[in-house]
């Protein structure tokens, strides 16, 4: 379990071990493909009245809690994650199987901290696992659109397999 600490209470993001290998052939699950409009589970504690996180003293740099994440917010966060994964893969030679889950975990943390796990159009907050799964899928698609031509053959194969699984699962839902 990865634990991230900021100026507020700790946010622990628990990721099933099999999802750390999310991009390995056969491991992309239907739950990870159910877009943001379908994902809703147990919400985190609600923000205080007014939707703002209270200051914790003069030295506090707490970021106020915002409303639910919009589709535009989610795209921006996933794009940042994809750029990070691409930089890791092309410059630091970290495989996409390691880079994409790390980026997805970062995106899930931001959604949880900034928006309380809430997404516009969904009645309940997303669980950390749902935020991770959805982010990983979005980042994978954006990596394919972004730095695919600069990836190693092994990383291209991982991306191609994952995109095929995403498309197959998406067509099964229709």
Can you walk me through this structure?
By secondary structure, the chain is mainly alpha-helical. It has a domain at 66-174. Helices cover 51% and strands 3% of the residues. The chain is built from 6 helices and 2 strands; from the N terminus they run ββαααααα. A two-stranded antiparallel sheet has the order 1-2. Helix 3 runs antiparallel to helix 4, helix 3 (71-90) crosses helix 5 (128-146) and helix 5 packs across helix 6 (153-173). The chain is globular and about 40 Å long. Residues 1-46 and 53-60 have low confidence and may be disordered.
Helicity level? 40-55%
**Global shape:** globular
Order of helices and strands: EEHHHHHH
Largest sheet: 2 strands, antiparallel
| Radius of gyration, taken over Cα atoms and rounded to an integer in Å | 17 Å
Tell me, rounded to a whole number, the average pLDDT: 75
Low-confidence stretches: 1-46, 53-60
**N→C terminal distance:** 34 Å
How large is the count of helical segments? 6
Strands ordered across the widest β-sheet: 1-2
Structural class given helices, strands, pairing? mainly alpha
State the total count of DSSP E strands: 2
Percentage of residues in DSSP E strands: under 5%
Descriptive keywords:
3% strand, two-stranded antiparallel sheet, 174 residues, mainly alpha, disordered N terminus
What would you say about this model in short?
It is built from 6 helices and 2 strands, in the order ββαααααα. It has 174 residues and is mostly helical.
Write the layout of secondary structure elements.
Blueprint: E1 2-4, E2 11-13, H1 17-20, H2 30-33, H3 71-90, H4 96-115, H5 128-146, H6 153-173
Antiparallel strand pairs: 1-2
Helix pairs in contact: 3-4, 3-5, 4-5, 5-6
């Amino acid at each position: 379990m990865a634990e991230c600490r900021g100026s507020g209470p700790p946010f622990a993001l628990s990721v099933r071990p099999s999802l750390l290998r999310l991009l390995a052939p056969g491991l992309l699950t239907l739950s990870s493909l159910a877009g943001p409009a379908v994902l809703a589970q147990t919400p985190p504690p609600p923000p205080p009245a007014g939707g703002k996180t209270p200051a914790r003293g003069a030295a506090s740099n707490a970021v106020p809690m915002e409303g639910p994440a919009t589709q535009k917010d989610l795209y921006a966060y996933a794009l940042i994650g994809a750029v990070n994964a691409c930089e890791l893969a092309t410059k630091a030679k970290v495989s996409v199987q390691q880079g994409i889950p790390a980026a997805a975990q970062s995106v899930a943390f931001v959604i949880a901290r900034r928006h309380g796990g809430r997404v516009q159009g969904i009645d309940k907050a997303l669980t950390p696992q749902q935020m991770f799964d959805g982010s990983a899928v979005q980042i994978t698609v954006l990596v394919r659109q972004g730095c695919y031509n600069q990836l190693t053959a092994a990383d291209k194969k991982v991306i191609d397999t994952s995109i095929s699984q995403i498309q197959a699962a998406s067509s099964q839902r229709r």
